[in-house]
Write a structure and sequence with these properties.
Blueprint (H helix, E strand, L loop, with lengths): L1 H16 L34 E5 L14 E8 L3 E9 L5 E10 L3 E7 L5 E7 L2 E7 L9 E8 L4 E7 L8
Parallel strand pairs: 1-5, 2-8
Antiparallel strand pairs: 2-5, 3-4, 3-6, 6-7, 8-9
Length: 172
Amino acid sequence: MKRRRFCALLGTVGVGGTAGCTRLPTSGRDAQFPPAARDAESDMALDSSPAERVDVGSRFGVLRPETNGPHDLRVWNDGPARKITVSVHRNTFPAHEAFEQAFDLAADAYVSLTLHRPAAYAIVVAAAEASATVGVDRSNFDCNDSATTVAVRSDGTFEASTQTTTMGCGPF
């Protein structure tokens, strides 16, 4: 009798624990990465296109890509035209440099990088004599859309912020 009660409890927990984790598949890019819920007033330059788009890494070999989506990184030049160097390092031992490139950005222009491989990253942004390091946690690579924006201000200072949707992804 206790075994039946245990099996019924186990079945209820198993079904209840996976509730909301399934959805109907769609086609195209939205099959794995739903469009971001972005606020045009808080996100910089949504009405313009980036000066350049760069893919860092690839999606090949990513386990459960529907729950390990990419992370967007935007580097915004909020000052005069200048050269900004972006280095992306995956936090492994030893550290793995995944990408480095210098961009000539006009005033109020930005570059958009997409980090495809789920991992923890350290991003180094350098302009003139100053640089800043921004961290991207592994937890940003989930079923939610997320983006990190690094602003290089006109006085040479740096500001960074991360935005993400806050849906629950489920335990599986």
